[in-house]
């Protein structure tokens, strides 16, 4: 990994737990609606609503909450009570108020890399959510800055490397999503390291094996240090 | 206005109409609940919910929609039907899908200033919302870049001028909110130009007259050109 100047870290499920909170909320949501629909069917309906709304709503907990409400109304054929809706609003607020749980070894890795490379956070989601998480995590000091992008695609990563005044080949991105953190970075000539999270949002999953000389498949975040 | 290197523009209600859309949605909301509460009382309740939620939700249309739903449930004492909730979700979606309406003379002003100064957009709100608006507005090309901040306060403006590699005295901010666009910029030693919008969100209003040698009170955005 010579020539690397900047290391980009995905935030949710790479630096700290996130998807698990969505799954926990979703589980409550399924249980709430169990009298109307079996859990796996509620899950499918919610995913459908989320995908329909993503263009308009984007990502994040507020978008998720609105999609849960919409799905609950449709699943119950409009018979959901307002106390049901209040519960769903509560699931969302609980998520927003959750403490940040840092993934093991993240601090060790950041301590080792700090000073040797410019470290940045690259994340999508609601600005306020993500800033709050970074501050609550106490990891803010390790990073040069935080880049919040609306989509993790070729264009946005190219903008990022331009903005950082480096060539894509001087950039490596580390994250749990092949689709968002790895593939677009490889596409523009950068390096990508995949650190799987125990669960990955359906929307982020891809069904193919990556073979690329600038791609590194790791087991845990700690393995990052084998390359630097 | 010598020494100015960077001109910051607020986006909502400075470059394009925004608050009016919130007011239009709110009006529909009041009418929906008219059987339960007179309009001015609904307005007060909604504002109360918004203020309670702002720490958790931040700004933007999704936050506004969730607060409308919560308020409607409380105003109707839980008797609102799910079709009422669906209507509220629809108000939010309509807002998100609205075309961008640029405020008169904005393009003329930007054309005159472009090339002579570095122009940036400084805005708070949901990232995806704001980026979508900038692209839809066709104004993107005039700006060096867009800064989306979680709050418009002294700290964030200082970060901004550092980030831009200028001193605050080389920065002027133009916007419709004294509280967000002008006062914090004056506080850090920058210049502030106030261009009033015909309506300003209650939360943004302040009750005092500003006297400051780096403050400029304008009538319309066109008056900006008198100073450059």
Short description:
Two copies of one chain form a homodimer. In chain A, 45% of the residues lie in helices and 12% in strands.
Overview of this protein structure:
The structure is a homodimer of 228-residue chains. Chain A has 8 helices and 6 strands; from the N terminus they run E-H-H-H-H-H-E-H-E-H-E-H-E-E. Chain A is of the alpha/beta class. Chain A folds into 2 domains: 6-16 and 101-227, Rossmann fold, CATH 3.40.50; 19-97, DNA polymerase, domain 1. In chain A, strand 2, helix 6 and strand 3 (145-149) form a beta-alpha-beta unit. The first copy, chain A, is elongated. Chain A starts with 5 loop residues before the first strand and ends in an 11-residue tail after the last strand. The mean pLDDT of chain A is 91. The interface between A and B is medium-sized, with 35 and 35 residues.
Major beta-sheet overview of chain A: 6 strands, parallel
The quaternary organization reads as homodimer
Percent helix among the residues of chain A?
40-55%
Number of structural units classed as domains of chain A: 2
CATH superfamily of the largest domain in chain A: HAD superfamily/HAD-like
Tally of extended strands of chain A? 6
Number of continuous helical runs of chain A = 8
Write down the secondary-structure element order of chain A: EHHHHHEHEHEHEE
CATH topology of the largest domain in chain A: Rossmann fold
* Coarse morphology of chain A: elongated
CATH class of the largest domain in chain A: Alpha Beta
Strand order of the largest sheet of chain A: 3-2-1-4-5-6
CATH architecture of the largest domain in chain A: 3-Layer(aba) Sandwich
Distance between the termini of chain A: 7 Å
C-alpha-based Rg of chain A, rounded: 19 Å
Structural class of chain A: alpha/beta
The two chains with the largest interface, and their residue counts, are: A-B, 35 and 35 residues
Strand percent estimate of chain A: 5-15%
């Amino acid at each position: 990994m010579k020539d690397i100047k900047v290391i980009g870290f995905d935030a949710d499920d790479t630096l700290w737990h996130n998807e698990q909170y969505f799954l926990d909320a979703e589980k409550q949501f399924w249980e709430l609606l169990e009298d109307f629909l079996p859990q796996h069917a509620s899950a499918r309906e919610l995913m459908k609503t989320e995908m329909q709304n993503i263009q308009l709503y984007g990502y994040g907990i507020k978008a998720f909450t609105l999609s849960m409400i919409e799905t609950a109304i449709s699943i119950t054929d409009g018979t959901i009570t307002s106390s049901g809706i209040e519960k769903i609003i509560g699931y969302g607020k609980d998520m927003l108020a959750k403490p940040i749980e840092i993934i093991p070894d993240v601090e060790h890795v950041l301590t080792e890399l700090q000073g040797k490379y410019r470290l940045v956070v690259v994340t999508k989601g609601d600005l306020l959510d993500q800033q709050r998480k970074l501050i609550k995590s106490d990891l803010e000091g390790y990073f040069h800055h935080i880049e919040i992008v609306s989509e993790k695609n070729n264009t946005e990563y190219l903008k990022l490397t331009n903005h950082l005044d480096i060539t894509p080949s001087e950039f490596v991105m580390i994250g749990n999503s092949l689709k968002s953190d790895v593939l677009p970075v490889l596409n523009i000539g950068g390096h990508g390291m995949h650190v799987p999270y125990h669960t990955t949002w359906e929307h982020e999953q891809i069904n193919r094996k990556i073979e690329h000389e600038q791609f590194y498949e790791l087991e845990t975040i700690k393995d990052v240090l084998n390359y630097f």
